[in-house]
Specification:
Helix content: 55-70%
Number of strands: 0
Shape: elongated
Distance between the termini: 101 Å
Number of helices: 5
Order of helices and strands: HHHHH
CATH class of one domain: Mainly Alpha
C-alpha cells in the first residue's frame, strides 16, 4: 500500500472564473494548506526558527492580498506582497538546501509560489495601468456643463483658432 500524501494543491480547489485578485488569494490559501503540514513536520530546531518565519510570511502575504482587494489604490499592498513572495522563495530554498524538503516537494512548492508571484505581478500591472488610464481620460460632458447642467459654472471652451496677428 502506498499511503503518500497527494501532490499539488488541495483537491478541494475548484477552477476559478472569478476576478484575478480572487484567484491569487485562493492560490495563496492553497499554498498555505500545502506548506503548513510540511512546516509542522520540521525538526524542532528548524520549526521554531525557519518554520515560524515561513508561516508568518505566508499569513502576512495572505493578509496583504486581502487588503489589496479592498484598498482603493492597492498598489502598495501588492508591492509588499511581491516582497513577501520573494522572501518566501529564499526561505523555501533554505528548506531544500538544509535537507528539510526533498527536491520534488521543493520544486512543487516553488511552482506554487511562482504562480502566486506571477498573479500578483499581473494584478499590480493591471492596477497601475488602470490608474494611468484614469488620469488620461478626457473630461466628461457632465463635468463640462457643470452641476447645474446649464454650462454657466463650466470652464470656457478652448479657442481652436489662433488669435489674429495685430501687427499684420
Amino acid at each position: 500500500m502506498h499511503s503518500e500524501e497527494p501532490e499539488g494543491p488541495p483537491a478541494a480547489r475548484q477552477e476559478r472564473t472569478a476576478a484575478p485578485e480572487l484567484s491569487v488569494i485562493q492560490r495563496c490559501y492553497d499554498l498555505i494548506l500545502w506548506l503548513q503540514p510540511r512546516v509542522q513536520k520540521l525538526p524542532r530546531e528548524a520549526r521554531f526558527g525557519l518554520g515560524v518565519r515561513i508561516e508568518t510570511a505566508l499569513y502576512e502575504l495572505l493578509e496583504l492580498l486581502i487588503e489589496a482587494r479592498y484598498a482603493p489604490p492597492a498598489t502598495e499592498a501588492l508591492r509588499l506582497a511581491g516582497v513577501r513572495v520573494e522572501r518566501l522563495r529564499y526561505q523555501m530554498r533554505l528548506l531544500r538546501d538544509l535537507g528539510y524538503l526533498d527536491a520534488r516537494r521543493a520544486e512543487q512548492g516553488a511552482r506554487l509560489l511562482l504562480e502566486v508571484g506571477q498573479e500578483i505581478g499581473g494584478w499590480l500591472k493591471y492596477r497601475q495601468r488602470k490608474g494611468h488610464e484614469a488620469r488620461r481620460q478626457p473630461v466628461s460632458r457632465d463635468r463640462e456643463l457643470g452641476e447645474s447642467g446649464t454650462g454657466r459654472d463650466a470652464r470656457p471652451p478652448r479657442e481652436t483658432v489662433p488669435p489674429a496677428n495685430p501687427f499684420v
